Amino acid sequence: MSFSKVGPGGGWSVGAKLTSAQMNQLDADHANALDKSVAGDQLIGAVTLASTASITVGISGGVIAVATAAGLSANVASAVQANHFASIVTPVAGGICATVAGGIVPTTQGGISDGGVAGGISTTTAGGIYLDGGSNDWIQYVGGRSFSEYVPLSLQPLNTGWLAGPEGDPGQIIGPGTSVVQGVSLWSRSGWTLSSVNLQIVVTNAHSGGAPATFPGIDVRRVTVPSVGGSGSLTSVSLNSGGAQYFFASSGSGWYDGELVQQLSFTCNQNNFVNRSAYRYTIYLSDESGANAESGNVFLGCMLNWTFGQSSPW
Predict the structure, then answer these.
(1) Which end of the chain is more exposed for a tag (fewer CB within 10 A), N or C?
(2) Which domains, and CATH codes, for the chain?
C-alpha cells in the first residue's frame, strides 16, 4: 500500500473536523510506517525507487546486510556501485555471485579485492573470471610473486668434448676440461624477471696436482631476435653487469670437495625482464681449463629463480 493525505485537500484550518475515518486511516498508516529507532523494523512489501531516488549508507559502520536465503539482485548494468574501498563486503562463501557474463565489473584499479582472505575470490564455473581489457593486459599480482624451477642441460647438441650425462639421467652433461663453451637454450616467460640462476656441479677428480687455472663458469645472455630483411647480425648482452661468474677454490682438494654437489649463483641484475618477442635467452657454460684442468666434471642442472607481477600464457 502507499500513504496518502487524510486531511482536506487545501490543508487543515481552524475549526475543521477530524473524523473517525481519518483517525483510523492515520492509525493504519502509523502501523505500516518504518520504525527508525534502534528497535528496527521489517518491510514486507516491495519498494520502488524513482529515477531520482537512492539509498545512502552515510554513517561510519553502516551496512546493507543480506540475510541467509535472501538476495540482492541487480538487473541492469551498474546497479550496485561502491565509491569507497571495501564498501561491498561479504562474510560468507558465494556472497557475491554473478549469474551472467560480465555480471561483476570493476571500473577502477583494485575494484575487486579478496579482502586479505585466502580464496576470497573464487570461481567454480568454466569461464567464471573473464578478462576483457586491452591486448596487453594480464592478471596483475600486487607485491609480485616468486617461482623457482630446475632445468636439465642436455636438451641440445653438445659442443666438442662435452658429453651426455650418466645413462638414465640425460639431464646432466660432462665437461671436457677445456675452454670450449656449451650453450643451453633457456625457455623463458614474457613479463617475468629472471633474478638468478644457480648452477650445480660435481667435481669427480681429486685434482692432486692443484686447483685448475680457470674454474667452471656460467653466463646468462640475452640475444636479439633477427628481423626479416635485416642483416642477421645479433646483439648479445649478459644479464649480469660483471659478465660471466666462476667457481673458485684455493686448493685442488678444496675444489674436489669429496665429490659433493657444489653450487654457483649467477645474479641477474640487468637486461633480465623477459620479452620473448624481441629476444631469446641462453645459458653459456664453461668447464675448468688451463693448468691442472681435468675433464669429468658433471654439470647437474640449473635452478632458475623468477619474480613476476603478472601472469601471461607465454
Answers:
(1) N
(2) 144-311 (2.60.120.260)
